[in-house]
Amino acid sequence: MKQWLGITIMLLFLSGCSLVEEVNNSLDYTEQATTFVNEATQFAGTIPDLAQEAASNIDAKENLTEQLENMKTKIAEFNGLEAPAFAQNIHDTIVGYNETLNEQIDTYKTQIDNGITDFKNTEMAQTLSQIQETMDQIKSLAP
To answer: What is the pTM of this model?
Structure first.
């Protein structure tokens, strides 16, 4: 009888640790997703002005290119996250937007190399808006 009690207590302890770990992973993922969406929002806010300035300023053009590369790095980092099961749908949605945004950044970088810095006529603004719209879904995540 004591053996069964000991095994039961050990199983309860292990399942409790597993539950705590799952909650911590869930909170960590939610925090990382929120950070990413906030970074994408900031990126969306700075790129139009920087693009306009880059049309006549070589330093701004270099800064613009650097900001685009930084965003690509952030995209890769986010896409590499392992989402908890309850957040998999929203993660997949953001990854899909990120893949589109990544391609759009590559296209825009080619335009910049060709001297075209006009941001207004790119599709990136729409994709960034879609990423921003996921914030409500991220806030409502619960394990």
So the answer is: 0.79
